[in-house]
Design brief:
The protein is α/β, with parallel strands linked by helices. The protein is built from 4 helices and 6 strands. The protein has a 6-stranded mixed beta sheet with strand order 1-2-3-4-5-6, with helices on both faces.
Length: 131
């Protein structure tokens, strides 16, 4: 049974306990405070989070200025819970696409495998194969 983790103006996320996958749909403008709220809720989960599908198709703006926070705080926090894989869903928004490609490079340095998709079924299939 999926558990709702976050439902705010930035994202709606559910945790699939069976597969240990976090599914997050981002929408609206990038907002660091709302992301921190989301991260704080993830930290309270007792179950490991092995992978994630992050749907950026309705996200607006750039999160480039938050890379230090993502690299030094956010991803190390979820990595401690067993986080290994993330599938990013993007639209044809060039800003989000370019920034997400840079984020994938950062994740490689943290030994987190990430891949970018435009098709939700392909993202889901790739992630489930990794588990």
């Amino acid at each position: 049974m999926p558990v709702v983790i976050t439902d705010n103006k930035l994202c709606h996320s559910i945790f699939d306990e069976e597969h240990k996958i976090l599914r997050t749909k981002y929408h609206g403008l990038v907002n660091k405070e709302l992301y921190i709220e989301h991260l704080d809720k993830l930290k309270t989960l007792e179950n490991p989070i092995i992978g994630s599908i992050a749907d950026f198709r309705k996200l607006r703006g750039s999160y480039f200025k938050h890379f230090n926070f993502l690299e030094e705080d956010a991803f190390p926090a979820v990595k401690m819970k067993g986080f290994k894989y993330v599938a990013y869903l993007i639209s044809d928004d060039l800003i989000i696409e370019n920034v997400t490609h840079k984020l994938v490079e950062i994740l490689r340095k943290l030994n987190i495998e990430a891949k970018i998709f435009t098709d939700p079924e392909e993202a889901e299939s790739w992630l489930l194969r990794k588990l």
